[in-house]
């Protein structure tokens, strides 16, 4: 069933100033900063630098990657793309590969 | 219980700073937080003040404004939301409580905020949120409203 006509796509409940306040099931709410405004938008997948965190009540939300030197992550602990010049190993980012690990420069992995 | 002090919120769009007349809105200090504060106006979505929120750090002095809505899933008590906003570096927090009848009562129970926390509603809140909707940088000054002292005549 479609949300209220005035709400943006994928949104169940919205308001003029906050944008979306409750997304449709399975979607993630992303709090988008645009200069002084911050509004809620509903996404099927989160932007780079964020991962989708699901919660039992259905208030799924995009949450920032918190892993050092990481640009894109799969979840809170697993980086999928390290910042330029860094090597990735088991979901973490390294300036140089840990001892005992061989460096694969083409894929920047250990 | 001491009466809650009223606040004067003066907002000037940065592009009109030299010539523009500020918009002046009245509010209510809560949590014994009456005092002066100044900074850029910055809106936060109510869901950004939750335990799972990001540490979205702002540069420079800013004043947070949050439009509360009873329909938004409540992730934290309002007192904790106010403290979280101050912990994120806000010089002060303004809550528009027009659409959340319980919010004012809940926030009035607060007793100790480190910096000003102000409630606004009705036309004043609408003026402020209208500015937010313009999405233009604005400077905010919050002060204590000094009530005129009338001489009491015995009649």
TrEMBL record, chain A:
Domain spans labelled R-spondin Fu-CRD: 9-110
Subcellular location: Secreted
Interval of the full protein contained in this chain: 35 to 144 of 270
Protein name from the UniProt record: R-spondin 1
Family assignment from sequence similarity: Belongs to the R-spondin family.
Domain of life of the source: Eukaryota
Coiled-coil spans in chain: none
